[in-house]
Amino acid sequence: MVIVKEVLCKSVLSRSGISAVDYAVNPYRGCEHGCVYCYARFIQRFTGHMEKWGEFVDVKINAPQVLARELSKAPEGVVMLSSVTDPYQPLEKKYELTRKCLQRLLTYRFPISILTKSSLVLRDIDLLKEFPECEVGFTITTINEEARKKCEPRSSPVEERLTALEELHERGIRTYVFLGPMLPYITDTTDGLRNMIQSFAKVNVDYVSVDRLNMRWGVWASVVDFLKQHYPDLIPAYKQILWSRSSSYFEELKPKILRLCMDYGVKCEFCY
Fold first, then answer.
1. I need a surface site. Which of 8, 144, 158, 165 has the fewest CB within 10 A?
2. What is the per-residue pLDDT across 63-77, written as a single tens digit (0 to 9) for each?
3. Is the previous residue joined to 82 through a cis bond, with omega within 30 degrees of 0?
4. CA angle at residue 109 from 137 to 88, to 5 degrees?
5. What is the rounded distance in angstroms from the CA atom of residue 181 to the CA atom of residue 169?
6. Is residue 82 within 8 Å of 14, Cβ to Cβ?
7. Which SS3 state, helix, strand or coil, does residue 35 take?
8. 56-60: strand order across its sheet
9. What is the CATH number of the domain that holds 207?
10. Domain enclosing residue 82, as ranges
């Protein structure tokens, strides 16, 4: 059960600290997907929501109008949709806020970068093709559906994401995969990584961006609950990997991923 609230926002175009991105637009506050690892749950501290992450969404119903006003005054820069929500979560089918924001961004010819887990982005190909610069990325943590259902309980099946990436490429739109966060001993096995990289090469992604599991506010408690339910034997290992300063686990993972990307001709970068 997701509690949905329509709200008015005063601003929607925010400066971004993400590399290669100047601004972020988040038409929604919160996300229905309920991913156990989501770092964006930190925004809950500022919302007054008492529900668990994934059980509330605030819909910024005036976001397109506010964005148009802000774009008229803002210096040109790359805009990301979205940094702390999924712009194509299921509610977008009803509200179409992301589509309306894209229309405003297109009017002012701002370059855009989209990150989502939903094939609903295909609905807006007509707009995406008109942008001077546009890229669409899909977050993919694993291509194992059983593991996906455990850590991303209400997100789109991975096969849908791969199919969408292929269609976007065929329509001339630059694509990428945000591979992460890496979940130790769950999504980063040699066979699992090989299957993922091979799948990304098959749909001709332009590059892969890899991230580790990051402990932002509220993430550790969520991850521990997830492990207790599905992988209780891994809890000691996660404590050591995530909280020990001497842990080199994620650094040692880099060459393994790089080798696989080289094997399949996929450009790779790391966020950590």
1. 8
2. 999 999 999 999 999
3. yes
4. 35
5. 24
6. no
7. coil
8. 3-7, 56-60, 28-30
9. 3.20.20.70
10. 3-270
